[in-house]
Amino acid sequence: MVDVAAIFKAYDVRGVVPDQLDESVARATGAAFVEVLDVLAGPGAVVIGYDMRPSSPALAAAFAEGVTSTGADVIDIGLASTDQLYFASGRLDLPGAMFTASHNPAKYNGIKMCRAGAAPVGADSGLRDIADLVAKALTEGPATGATPGHITRKNLLTAYADHLHDLVDLSGIRPLTVVVDAGNGMGGHTVPAVFAEGPVTIVPLYFELDGNFPNHEANPLDPKNLVDLQAKVRETGADLGLAFDGDADRCFVVDEQGDPISPSAITGAVAVRELAKHPGSTVIHNLITSKAVPELVTEHGGTPVRSRVGHSYIKQQMAETDAVFGGEHSAHYYFRDFWRADTGMLAALHVLAALGEQDRPASELFAEFERYAASGEINNKVEDAAATVAAIEDTYAGREGITVDHLDGLTVSAGQWWFNVRASNTEPLLRLNVEAADRATMERVRDEVLALITGS
Length: 456
Fold this sequence. Notes:
Blueprint: H1 4-7, E1 13-16, H2 23-36, E2 45-50, H3 56-69, E3 73-79, H4 82-92, E4 96-99, E5 108-114, H5 123-140, E6 151-153, H6 157-167, E7 176-181, H7 187-194, E8 200-205, H8 227-236, E9 240-244, E10 251-254, E11 260-261, H9 263-277, E12 282-286, H10 292-299, E13 303-307, H11 311-321, E14 325-327, E15 333-335, E16 341-342, H12 344-356, H13 362-367, E17 373-374, E18 378-381, H14 385-396, E19 403-405, E20 410-413, E21 417-423, E22 429-436, H15 439-454
Parallel strand pairs: 2-3, 2-4, 3-6, 7-8, 7-9, 12-13, 12-14
Antiparallel strand pairs: 1-5, 4-5, 9-10, 10-11, 14-15, 15-16, 17-22, 18-22, 19-20, 20-21, 21-22
Helix pairs in contact: 2-3, 2-5, 9-10, 9-12
């Protein structure tokens, strides 16, 4: 019997195929999704998309069977990036399900679910209820008796690209050459549509859709997966490099020298652009982003709001504050004009517009958004995360000039530095992020905290 609790995470469903996630689980999830979201009493249909993984079409088809078994209809948009599915959910005003395991290896797959208008489905907003119904269906069998709904196939790729161009117009920028590493993921599907014409010349890397990821993992957060992009940017003399993860909802950027531009710098740059269009607006940033982000927002007349890590928290705060934009250290970027959903492609268009509207190279342009030295996220296995965090707090709390908060894990702040330690939701890991005014201070604080975590 499948351990349903093990594959239903805080924000989505994911597991090894077929050991944890198979067609029976997908089918039961489709039926439960309709019941929990009360689809039959509302829109009457669900929109479904899937990525290039070998298991995705069959899992999506099984989920569709579960949906239609209740009497609800399905709009099948076929191959899609996750942000393309969010676009479909917003444009059609339907709840949606995307079959992808994002940046995870080929043996995994998963389901990202949303309410109509791309609103999140998280642990406290329906996911636990869906998991309970799935467990019941797998034990007792599915309910029967409803007149089946219908499946309609709809291609929304061109409409998706047109919507992005309506939000960021590149027609007036200087010509740019951009290397794009799709990592054999869904960027190979969406990038050609978005950049079919205009002043941006694309140099493609690994655009062939292949869920076995023959060239490298589709996880640009790991520096080893940027090596090919960096080399190609230097080889071609390109103006910029972009790397998308497997489901193409996140975008990472390297400058003309092949050096990575931090997601915090991208968050700051996009926030400034959005505030220029919407003066005085709120911008959400998670607590791991650089201190430069709230500084930039304030300097440009906006209101920065600090959030926990995770898309459901960001989206909730965006809705509560009517924020124009939100950014995370993991390269998730959220836009009010995109139904508050995350889209790496729209962030990429903002980056290209910012670069192409002036004459400086990317390294100079984005340097003004990089104000501090950061460690990046450092993961360590621990036996008892809570006890380790408590020991770290005991070490720092009460020191002069130190403040502590528990918005998400433990954040310890001083005038010249801060760090955060958070337990992983899915693994026995502590995640450490450190930032300071200079590299020497950052390294000193980083090493102090790591010694407490590892006991060395």
